[in-house]
Amino acid sequence: MALKRSLGLTMLTFYGTGMILGGGIYSIIGQAAGKVGYGLWQSFVLAAVGALLTALSYAELATMFPKTGGEYVYLRNAFSSQRWLAGTTGIIMTFAGCASAATVALAFASYLQHFVVLPHLLVASGLLVFFTGINIIGIKQSSWVNAVFTAIEAFGLLLFIWLGWQNPNFGSALSAVPTSATVSSAALIIFAYFGFENIVNLVEETKAPEKTIPRAILLSLCISTILYILVSLAAVALMPPDQLAQTESALTDAAMNSAPRIAGILAGIALFSTANTALIALLTTSRILYGISKDDSLPMVLAKTLTARQTPWIAALAALGLSLTFLPLGKVETLASVASFTTMIAFISVNAALIALRLSQPSKERPFRVPVAIRSIPVFPVLGIITCLIFLFQFDRQIYLVGPISFACSAGMYFLYAFFRRRQLK
Questions:
Q1: Is 373 strand, coil or helix?
Q2: Mean pLDDT across the stretch 179-198?
Q3: How far is Cα 109 from Cα 125, in angstroms, rounded to an integer?
């Protein structure tokens, strides 16, 4: 059964903006500040440029192939003789989505400690289970929850910016000199921009996707980048970077010294922000699983939908189960780095897919087209690949172990299912 088209530009932009804002600014800004110091805002700019280069590729590919499954669909069409590459990348993005959900669920649990002390794992698990239930109920219900939560989290960031604006040190960080740490910090911060790529996984639930998807992607990135730069300037004005690095609730603690009452408000708003990101991460990850399984590269049972709700409920439960397995890793920074590493691999693949399709299918209709090309080779996807490769060399050493393990597990899952599938057909 097909999914229900319920989303317009406004709701889709809310999804993208909500995923981006809640995913990073509340969960990893402290760790990023510890890496780069007062040049924090520069890392946000660099990460935004890196995200934009790849976002343009997603926008073009989504209008060429408006099907749920995102990276899997694009690689399947670009490299049809290498079906394993599409399947493996799709499963990797499932891992990334679940790692993101676990990251912000743990951040939610940290902020909750400002109001009531409860075990982190219990709180994070409960949040993931609750939002899986909402996603199963329906896309329209999820949309309204997301819209309300996104409005609340944007208000919280504006409140924090206003507080920083009152500090005489606001803006002094603009004179900071870029260093090599700017790049390593941007590699972590780019996690804060993840979310735009998940918009494409709602394409089958979007009205007029050929126009709506590219606009929603670019609008989400624009809104988020402006807010991020202002928040980063406010953060280092209110608290020194080395102190920001010592806390998992950086914005609340930064506001505490200047305005304890506002700090309490921010802690409450942070709950909505991190919860919102968990909601969207679970939603879009279930759509990735739905799209892959519908093409029979994963068990077809994952493509089953509820007759009345038209939601992929088994895929939603699978996304929940995988997200719960990430929670014991514990550290927000570790989970964010795992999500960043695996998503960087997917971004490289998507940019490569666009380049390949420009060469192999030059006449295919493209409602949105990435500008600037040299001899049929689009320039921005090439720059996107280079940027992602640079970011890949900036992670801590343990991530280079976890990342390949994730890739190997993804490939193993794909080949294992393909093996059993072939045996069934004999």
A1: strand
A2: 80
A3: 9
10 Å CB burial of residue 411 (0-12, 13-18, 19+) is middle
Please give the CATH topology (third level) of the domain spanning 9-425: Amino acid/polyamine transporter I (1.20.1740)
Q: What pLDDT, on a 0 to 100 scale, did the predictor assign at position 336? A: 64
Indicate if the alpha-carbon torsion angle 163, 169, 171, 173 is positive or negative: negative
Q: Residue 376, CB half-sphere, CA atoms under 13 Å: how many?
A: 8
Task: With CA atoms as reference, report the closest residue to 166 among 36, 40, 34, 257.
Answer: 257
Where are the chain's structural domains?
9-425
Q: pTM (2 decimals)?
A: 0.81
361-415 per-position pLDDT tens digit: 998 989 999 998 898 899 999 999 998 888 887 766 767 777 777 778 887 887 8
Cβ contacts of 412 within 8 Å, gap of 6 or more: none
> In whole numbers, what is the pLDDT of the chain averaged over residues?
83
Composition of the chain by helix, strand, coil, percent to 5: 75, 0, 20
Structure tokens at 50: 């890196």
CA dihedral 394, 396, 401, 402 (to 10 degrees): -90
pLDDT digits (tens, 9 = 90+) for 124-159: 899 999 988 887 887 667 777 777 888 888 888 898
Q: Both tokens of residue 371? A: 């500008």
The pLDDT value recorded for residue 202 is 80
Residue with tokens 């500090």: 167
In angstroms, the CA 290 to CA 70 distance is: 11
- Give the type of residue at 373: A
* DSSP SS3 for 377: strand
| Predicted pLDDT of residue 233 | 93
Phi-psi region at 299: left, alpha or beta (left = phi > 0; alpha = psi -120 to 50): beta
Q: Residue type at 419?
A: F
